[in-house]
Amino acid sequence: MEDSNYIMPRIGDQAPDFKATTTIGELTLSEYNKDHWVILFSHPADFTPVCTTEMTGFALEKDFFAQHNTKLLGLSIDSIHSHIAWVNAVHEKTGVLFEFPIIADLDMKISKLYGMLQPGESETAAVRAVFIIDPKGKVRLLMYYPLNVGRNMDEIKRALIALQTSDDNKVACPLDWRPGDKVIVPAPKTIEALTERKASDLEMVDWYLAKKSL
Q1: How many angstroms separate the CA atoms of 203 and 212, rounded?
Q2: 156 in a structural domain
Q3: Which of 54, 80, 190, 204 would be 104's cystine partner, CB 3.0–4.6 Å?
Q4: 175: domain range?
Q5: Domain assignment of residue 136, yes or no
Q6: What is the CA radius of gyration of the chain?
Q7: What does the pLDDT look like over 36-48, one tens digit per residue?
């Protein structure tokens, strides 16, 4: 029987709201999320090597995320004092400052709410989860990595741009899509639309698979 403590929100679900203690003070997700995309991501523990590389990666991309109307929100099952000490240590050693908020989830409520605790991997450390949440508060994408494999920042950025491009232009993005590549136009749903499609200047592989440049 599935343990309800470890059920994660699914794509299309409203992101569960919460209030949390973070490195920038008290924060409520729905308020933080208002009019912005949010990337909520968990890491297993402070003062660990892989997590340090990941958090540094997010911090170094702050301009990219700001340009794409996206806020970052980290989380681990550590105290706020541990978070602050870690932020300070990384800043002193590398010059990189984690300016985005990091949730102190000591009671594991948020980790359980988002399925970040996966018993087969660990009962006390959150796996490397990534949730991309749109400005309407809906979960749009999930990524999960084990404790010993770091995330791919390039893919997180690519996926975010693809979601925003798809929303803005009512299109889909094909395999390995990058900004500037052609996008896929939705397939026709009527005979009339099919006739129009055949007469169009779209790049057609077949009637159901047509591409265009934006």
Answers
A1: 6
A2: no
A3: 80
A4: 170-212
A5: yes
A6: 20
A7: 999 999 998 899 9
